[in-house]
């Protein structure tokens, strides 16, 4: 229980800090009110997990929530840093911070090994994905569709934000 509470508070604090830093005029002066409203929303959203069917809801969210989405996010991050930003620029940034250039091993890992392994793991996980395990409760067929929508909603945020940034950023693609 303590681990769950600790990770919840850590995640909440990260979200609160990010939003307050992004919108300082709107949220900076009213941080306490913002935190109160956010905690009330989390409380209301968590109430169904306290019912008799709550354990099934938590199981459902564990199966369809984080797994594939986290793999996809980490792959996009690795590919973006190395294939879009560039290994040379990334290495120059590391050299600026540490005072020495990263070795060839790290450059190869960043450029090829990590993104390729993450992509293979993501595709393998997608192909070998098991639906909700049968147990004492059989989930209805429509719940599988809702679960995949939950997974897709997490995955769709990255391409949607990329498209949004391309549309609002001035200059050409290569700039």
TrEMBL record:
List where the protein spans the membrane. Answer: 33-57, 63-85, 105-126, 146-164
Query: How does it sit in the bilayer?
Result: Multi-pass membrane protein
Give UniProt keywords alphabetically.
Answer: Membrane, Metal-binding, Sodium, Symport, Transmembrane, Transmembrane helix, Transport
GO CC, alphabetical: neuron projection; plasma membrane; presynapse
Xref: PROSITE patterns: NA_NEUROTRAN_SYMP_3
Give any GO molecular function from the UniProt entry.
Answer: serotonin:sodium:chloride symporter activity
Chain sites annotated for binding Na(+) = 6-7
Q: Name one GO biological process term.
A: amino acid transport
State where the protein is found.
Membrane
Whether Signal counts among this entry's keywords is no
Q: Name one Pfam family in it.
A: SNF
Under InterPro entries, the record lists: Na/ntran_symport (IPR000175), SNS_sf (IPR037272)
Q: Which family does it belong to?
A: Belongs to the sodium:neurotransmitter symporter (SNF) (TC 2.A.22) family.
Protein name, entry field: Transporter
